[in-house]
Design a protein that fits this description.
Blueprint: H1 2-19, H2 21-40, H3 50-60, H4 64-71, H5 75-78, H6 87-102, H7 104-110, H8 114-144, E1 147-148, E2 151-152, H9 159-186, H10 191-217, H11 222-244, E3 246-252, E4 255-258, E5 261-264, E6 267-273, H12 280-299, H13 305-313, H14 319-340, H15 343-352, H16 364-399, H17 407-445
Antiparallel strand pairs: 1-2, 3-6, 4-5
Amino acid sequence: MASAAEQLAANLNLGVFSRATELKKRIWFTLGALIVYRLGTYIPIPGVDPSVMSEMLQQHGGGILGMFDMFTGGALRRLTVFALNIMPYISASIITQLMSAAIPSWEQLKKEGEQGRKKLNQYTRYLTVVIAMFQSYGIAIGLQSMHGTFGPAVPNPGFFFTFTCVVTLVGGTMFLMWLGEQITARGVGNGTSLIIMSGIVANMPTALASLLDLGRTGALSPFFILAFLVLAVATITFIVFIERAQRRIHVQYPKRQVGNRMFGGDATHMPLKINTPGVIPPIFASSLLLIPATIAGFSGGGGPAWVQAISTWLGQGTPLYMLLYAGMIIFFSYFYTAVVFNPEETADNLKKYGGFIPGIRPGSATAEYFDKVLTRLTTVGGLYLVAVCLLPQVLITDYNLPFYFGGTSILIVVSVTMDTVTQIQSHLLAHQYEGLIRRARVRGKR
């Protein structure tokens, strides 16, 4: 009986999907935009020999360059127009969120609704241009000083190359920012997240092939590869379970009489995620810890002694690296959660609309309750991020696995996939309700 009901629901969903022409257009638009992005990751920057950068990443791929190359889907390794990817926009968005919590005028913009959001988005775009200019200028200067086995990375260095490189990279980042906004508005899912996820997923088959090749050559045992695949499936299942987990706080609204009618008296819940900051803490922590290794790699062993010492102490897999990595993940979990969720503001809004938590007094007591619950959730979420990120980090260090099998990449892929599927289900449900409403209107006219 249950299987028949499930089959009927599946047939109903398939029927709804076949009639949901708008959803199909959104999906095709999203796929087309992602194809355009992937094609752009193969358009090289003029005047650069990409083999030198590829050789540099092979030698020093364990630093921040390797992680950024993972996020760009190999565009940094190939030195294409999308070498910066959309990372400057993400950095600008995070900075804008942090500044909106620190600057009163920006905090006021958050409360002004749609107009304030548009203003903050405008500031984010301006900041994206500034960050992209600094990063592209650093890449242009760094490329002109690189030399590989077969010669320099830039055969004709100078002002003209620096100018063209900066313009090309900034233009590529701004195009991806625009493309991500178009996907969000006219497609399915969050455009920025989908662009990053597509870059990671695009190189996963190559990483898996290299893993199997290690087994073929005898560098890794077949038992280890099988155990690794089982561990990857278990990790994905664990991530899905935690990301979908919620702490539901019961909220009650009192009844009120307007004329001869009674309104209100509804009961609802406020969902609080266990992992409120998402993948931001691992990205921040790994970026900061990999900076010394990257500087030491670029200096070729000829940099300051203190840089070499720090790079040695903070090498991947060392006890100090693991300890700092775990501590920084937990710290950024608390920090970013405090930025995105304000207990006092939430309690004031709840009190303004007449809502209350049963057994908790409105106002400051409700804010303290939110703070206590959020602290416990953040502790669990931080430990969850540490477990997900440190275990793959051990495998990457001990067995030279690529970054694509790291906890951060798996978190991004799973989270974005879940969000996209949820939006598709929302579109299907809305289309189903629209069909029911239209049929009800037709029957009413009869």
